[in-house]
Write the structure tokens for this entry.
Amino acid sequence: MKQPILEILSVAGGGAIGAVCRYLLTYWQGPTRLAWNSWAEWPWGTLSVNLIGCFLIGCFMSGNNPETIDRWRFVFVVGFIGSFTTFSALGWESWQGLQQGQWLASLVLIGLHIVIGLAMVHLGFLSGGYLSSHSFAKW
């Protein structure tokens, strides 16, 4: 399916701004560490952008004017929030399910994202360690 160039440019522009904002917020709050031993070392920047993204998508999508939502969706939701955080989409989808009375489905959705996300981090960590220990990965 062919995408209109204006939508593609809108996503790109919003994405560039969202990525820079994420970088600046996480940089301002300090470096993310691979491991933390206290609350002072917690990755507050990542938590902040995820929670801010959920708040922003909720604010935007709650608008009563569908024409405005449709006009700015590519720039703001897909571009800006999409590059600022991807957690906001999970928050929005889970909230929609809860609003519709789908408590179990929403909790399963949240659980799957967290559990599978952690499993994929672990798998990536193991894969990266394996590849870096073999000579074919050092070319």
Q: What stands out?
A: The chain has a mean pLDDT of 80. The CA atoms of residues 85 and 108 lie 21 Å apart.
